[in-house]
Specification:
Distance between the termini: 18 Å
Order of helices and strands: EHHHEHHHHHHHHHH
Number of domains: 1
Number of helices: 13
Helix content: over 70%
Oligomer: single chain
Structural class: mainly alpha
Length: about 350
């Protein structure tokens, strides 16, 4: 059970000064038809990727895997989840709530594997995390703040890695023609996104206007594209207010956010090591610059896809980047599949008993 450690001191609007943050928790169960179709599409992409490789060389590469070295991506995955849990624990402490580390590890495991299984742009994990925090006596407002701030910091750090990946791709590989144009356009687009995000985070008045306009555009887009699933405008406005309060919380505690941000950075470093040690496991280590480029582009493609866990999309995009960097396709495919099994498969298996009880509740 979480332990209250006292009120959150602040000079501005906080979660303890009467700001009501609604818990707009989404439905956890997506349409079965959509999940089946999306899953089949991912499997199709994965099958196409395997057929593009030389089957005999693929088998030979798989046979060359060292069982002892397979422990390396497993240990890196463990490090990723432990540092992720520490980041949540630090943000919760900044909000005035102490969670036992074991409890936070279980919450982190279940919530993240929910995101792998249900492609809802992270909302399924957010909903489960809210539920688990509330079961431990945390007020809804605090539960929202913990999840929201950690998500914001995680995505900001990921954007930095994505930009680094595109920069490394531009400078480590002789891109020409359309490839150069696409990579440069994406790099400029992500850089602009980081700039706008920084303005939204740091400039309160500009943030209010930008969030209002984005909410209005989102409401219009949903009304045109999916009117039957369009949330009420009041719900969108409440979410905008929640985001605004979460950013204020972040800015009011810059020193208290340093340690959680460091843990988030370490989380992504460990995730990179999962991919790097996957190549080590097959006896074909590659440069870390190539790992960063493939990882960043693969994670981006996985996040923007609507396929559960980015199945097929992540593997295909990563393998394509590595192949363009002169890594044999067969080595890239096997290494990426090891990454998938270690970083996604093992946590899902570990969380299934907890996930079953949580979803039923």
């Amino acid at each position: 059970m979480s332990e209250r450690v006292g009120p959150v001191a602040s000079t501005g609007p906080t979660v303890e000064t009467g700001v009501t943050i609604p818990a707009a928790v989404p439905e956890l169960r997506a349409s079965r038809r959509w999940l089946v179709l999306a899953g089949l599409a991912g499997v199709g992409v994965l099958a196409f990727l395997i057929t593009r490789a030389d089957l005999q060389r693929l088998v030979d590469t798989a046979r060359g895997i060292s069982p002892a070295r397979l422990l390396l991506p497993v240990l890196a995955t463990l490090g990723s989840y432990l540092t992720m849990a520490r980041s949540y624990q630090g943000i919760a402490a900044a909000a005035g709530w102490n969670f036992p580390f074991g409890d936070m590890c279980r919450i982190t495991l279940v919530a993240n594997t929910a995101n792998y299984l249900l492609s809802t742009a992270g909302l399924s994990g957010f909903a489960l995390r809210m539920y688990l925090f509330r079961r431990r006596g945390t007020p809804t407002s605090i539960a929202v703040i913990i999840s929201l701030v950690q998500t914001l910091l995680t995505n900001l750090v990921l954007l930095v890695f994505v930009i680094a990946g595109f920069v490394l791709l531009l400078f480590s590989h002789n891109l020409m023609g359309r490839e150069l144009l696409v990579a440069t356009t994406l790099l400029l687009g992500f850089s602009a996104l980081v700039l706008v995000t920084s303005i939204v985070v740091l400039h309160r008045n500009w943030r209010r206007g930008i969030l209002f306009r984005c909410t209005h555009l989102l409401d219009r887009a949903l009304a045109r594209l999916t009117p039957q699933r369009r949330p009420q405008r009041l719900t969108l406005m409440r979410f905008q207010r929640t985001l605004h309060v979460g950013l204020d919380f972040l800015l009011e505690r810059p020193h208290e956010m340093l340690v959680p941000t460091l843990y988030i950075f370490l989380d992504w470093i460990f995730t990179l090591l999962v991919l790097y040690t996957s190549f080590v496991a097959i006896g074909y280590p590659i440069a870390m610059t190539h790992v960063i480029a493939g990882f960043a582009i693969g994670m981006f493609c996985s996040l923007v896809s609507l396929v559960p866990g980015g199945l097929g999309v992540l593997e295909g995009s990563m393998a394509a980047v590595f192949a363009s960097l002169n890594v044999p396709l067969e080595h890239a495919v096997v290494a990426v599949l090891i990454f998938r099994a270690a970083y996604y498969g093992l946590p899902v298996l570990a969380s299934l008993p907890l996930m079953h009880r949580t979803v039923r509740a």
